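Note to self: keep these together.
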Amino acid sequence: MKRYNETTSSMQGKELPISRRHFVSSSALAPFALGAAGSLLAGTAAAADVMEILEDDMVLGDRTAPLAIVEYASLTCGHCANFHNNTLPKLEEDFINTGKAYIVYRDYPLDRFAFQASVLAHTAGEKLFFPVLKLLFKEQAAWTSASDITEALTAIARKVGISQAKFEEALKDETLGERILMDRMVGSNEYGVSGTPTLFINGELYQGDWANYEAFSSDLQDMISA
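Structure:
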């Protein structure tokens, strides 16, 4: 499980508001059921003056880059797919690969299938985490509309070298499940996250238009130059 700083340590002894069992077994939530919350601007003012990047965070890029972009996302969120399929490739080319920024991905599953997809990405391991994430977002429309979504995710798992048995075992892994849900709990309780994707840049909630890459990149460049 993640270790959090003094600001969030008070939560570690509290029961998660949404349990792992709820996501694994409940059919009450369907993909995109909370899609209306998917605005970048959703959420209350965040207590983001302290946002430590943790050793076990999933990071793409050089941690010493001047811009730290923390993304809270759900793998069944269409807005998140838009960010990963259209904005992130340009962001990688212009900022991440050039050492100007790095991105931290934190799980904020909106439903049980987003939870299962997060389990799949983490099961792939640190080196393959972002490639699997990319695949899941690229094929989101297909697997989220499948008649058996868990089976569709199992097929993607096999495609990336994860056997059905390994994926099924990972879905039962309480430590991994709590790690994923802890991301969501801390995002919600500490930083005011209520929708996806939500971006923080150097600890501050980003309220600009990430879908307009020209404006987004201009904002990022201004932050570097400030």
